[in-house]
Amino acid sequence: MVTKIKSATLKPHLDRLYAALNRREYVSPDPLQFLYDYADPLDREIVGLIASSLAYGRVAQILRSVKYVLDRMQGPRKFLADTTPAKMQRAFVGFKHRFTIGDEMAALLAGARHAIRAHGSLGACFASLAKKGDEDVRPALARFVDELNKGAAGSTASLLPEPSRGSACKRLHLYLRWMVRSDEVDPGGWDCVAPSKLIIPLDTHMHRICGKMGLTKRRPADARTAKEITEAFRKFSPEDPVRYDFAITRLGIRNGMDLHGYLGHILIR
Question: Can you list the positions of beta strands (E) in 27-125?
């Protein structure tokens, strides 16, 4: 049996994994790929909100749904500036992504429009909601969701989970990873948030791998587990605890990137 290993032993393996797999060539198929088409951070933050909000279900369906929305906007920033909530509803009549219907997507975009009109950008909105005493991004994220919902013309229930309810909020933390971090994979654009305050975007796949690495023993993939795993990664990368997220989540998803092939010798059985 492989026993739990110490942080100093695990870090070199994670760094090698990052060097090998944290590459743009390994992004597709992933909703993150849509962000690379937008050089302007003010467009990209809107695309990121759409793509991350729809990042549930089968990846092929996610990509189709994100493309559908973006094709109808023909320029995200301009669309939000020029389109009333009522026109947004008409623009997405017939749209459906699993549990999400056109009215919910229109409501989300109306909420983003409200935040941008009030603060100048989504990044500035988030920055205005962060407080010095916040240990991480979670309090500001809860306020950000509230701010988006203030301007939403209807329900955003399937797109914006409420952080206060204890879920891992994987899609929201994925959005923040894309917006805050800047490397070959994550495009960044929000300098108002320190990467050190990010929380790991936790889903069942990431939860399973982290359990095998001995980073958590908790069974539910909830907010407490996401925080626990983030703190474990903080020991390896204090200023950027979410650094390894993309590389780890390639394992077992992309062909030729097998979990045991890369990390088998250090996993707990």
Answer: 96-97, 100-101
**Residue 110 and residue 91: Cα distance in Å, rounded?**
12
* Predicted local distance difference test score (pLDDT) of residue 9: 77
135: its two tokens:
């240990």
Average pLDDT on 175-185 reads 98
Burial of 1 per CB tally in 10 Å (0-12, 13-18, 19+):
exposed
- How far, in Å, CA of 8 to CA of 15, rounded? 11
Mean pLDDT (the chain) is 91
Instruction: Point out which residues pair with 96 in neighbouring strands.
Output: 101
Stated length of the chain: 269
**What is the distance between the alpha carbons of residues 267 and 154, in angstroms, rounded to a whole number?**
46
**Distance, CA of 144 to CA of 129 (rounded, Å):** 7
Closest CA to 200 of 219, 218, 221: 221
Hey, what amino acid is at 76? P
**Hey, what are 40's tokens?**
């302007």
Distance between CA atoms of residues 3 and 20, nearest Å = 25
pLDDT digits (tens, 9 = 90+) for 217-230: 999 999 999 999 99
Helix (H), strand (E) at residue 89: helix 85-91
Helices (H), the chain: 7-21, 41-53, 59-73, 76-82, 85-91, 102-119, 122-129, 138-151, 170-180, 204-212, 223-234, 245-250, 259-263
Closest listed residue to residue 192, CA positions, set 123, 255, 245: 123
Single pTM value for the model: 0.93
Largest CA distance in the chain: 61
